[in-house]
Amino acid sequence: MLKQWKQRLPLFLVITAVLVFSIQNMVQAAPNIVVNNVRVSQTAEAVRFVFDVTDLPQYKVMTLENPLRLVIDMPGTVNKAAAQYNLNDPTVKGLRLAQFEPGKLRAVVDLKTVYMYKIFTLPNPNRLVVDIIKDYEHKLVDEVVPGITYTSWLRHAANGPVWAHILDIDPKAGFAVKPVLSNEMIQGLEPLLPMAQRSGAIAAVNGSYFGLDGSIIGLLKIDGEIASTPELPRTALGILPTGDLFIDQVSYEGKIELPGGKTAAIQAVNRERGENELVLYNGLYAPATGCNQHGMEYIIVNDKVTAINTGNSPIPPDGVVLSAHGTAARPLAGLKVGDTVTVRQTLGSEWDKTQHALGAGPMLIKNNSVFLTTKMEEFGPDVAGGRAPRTAIGLKDDGHILAVVVDGRQDSSIGMSLLELALFMQELGARDAMNLDGGGSSEMVIQGKIVNKPSDKRERRVGNALVIIPSRVAN
User: Fold this and answer.
1) What is the pLDDT of residue 411?
2) What confidence tens digit (pLDDT) does each residue in 161-194 have?
3) TM spans, by residue (predicted)?
4) 176, 276, 295, 331: which has the highest count of C-beta atoms within 10 A?
5) Model confidence over 431-458: pLDDT tens digits?
6) How far, in Å, are 43, 167, 280, 384 from residue 372 at the CA level?
7) How far apart are CA 252 and CA 245, in angstroms?
8) Which of 46, 41, 92 is nearest to 69 (CA)?
9) Phi/psi of residue 426, each to 5°?
10) How far apart are CA 251 and CA 349, in angstroms?
11) Strand 77-79 to strand 33-42: parallel, antiparallel, or no bridges (unpaired)?
């Protein structure tokens, strides 16, 4: 029996040695830092969490976006304080403490809005301090190309964070702004990114209001041709052949001169024809008018009637189609193929000189002062109501052009009201400024990349855009 014991002794010693080594390792790996208490303080500028600890811990920080969380892992640390702290704060929901792994404490700060943070340790007594900063401003300025700068500006506002994207364009450096159509025609919609890529744009923002079929709501003029007309006087951006820009209100007047000296008023250009209306269609609309068979359509080339149809007429590249219905069709009833018909259109003496024009509105800044024309231009709550993603264009005294997109309807940015947008454009130095389409349409593209966060979480298909291109391409 003694012999058997001696034979087993080496195995016993090995097992004992392993157990001793394992116990020593467990002792060495055991947590040796204790969180005894967590103190919380709140101000308008920040929320501070102070962890009272027995020794200064090592820590690793992670930031999560969905949902918004700040995560702090502390190896070799255990918690003897409360496990949860709930706050009544516009930015911070609260703090949770839990053992993430054996010997590792995880602190999670749950957040409601975008924030900035600072974490540091202090000795004597030992503390870990976490500051959630609510009153902040973070601005990054990059030169896209010489003459164009992009600013990403995240700032704290009274009601939450606002994230703005600002292009400052110097036309004297060889750049021009011009409108472009989705799919190169009125009918149909298209995301901003392919529009910018197709036009060779350095940058682009969404443009004016549009209907679900792509029809433009408001004035649009491209390369000297009127693509769409406003229903009532509203604000527009005018671009002269010289490259000079101006912002003002504009209205449309159109008529046709018929044989015998009679005239007939044109109600609109390039949109669906309604009852008792005369609508003009040109090559910017679509291959054909798409109108129903309940009216009469007259194809005009070189001021001559070349064909007469009842609907859905092909639009000649070098002419127009006059589509009339009901009472608006009566003055045209006697027209025959070969008759002379002259189209007269005007936007006013100054606007008739423009090469391009894009209307939206309301006006935001006029002659360096806030000048909101929301009621005057009869905008409803879909445009004027509350904070939303916004897009704006502005002109500075030094000749520079501002294109601005403000994100909204998300945790990272609450958007702006029209008044807040006007004040912001004034702050940026705009002498004159106007609102463009907003909401899910608000988007900015720079060198083939989307730089903002559209509120739809994806690109919305839009009817038109404003692109920034080299001047030689624009002419």
Assistant:
1) 81
2) 899 999 999 999 999 999 999 999 999 999 999 9
3) none
4) 295
5) 999 999 999 999 999 999 999 999 999 9
6) 35, 22, 32, 10
7) 19
8) 92
9) -65, -40
10) 11
11) parallel
For 20-69, what is each residue's pLDDT tens digit? 333 333 333 456 899 999 999 999 889 999 999 999 999 999 999 888 99
Given this model, what pLDDT does residue 15 score? 32
Give me the domains of the chain, ranges plus CATH numbers: 33-133 (2.60.40.3500), 139-250+350-474 (no CATH), 253-346 (no CATH)
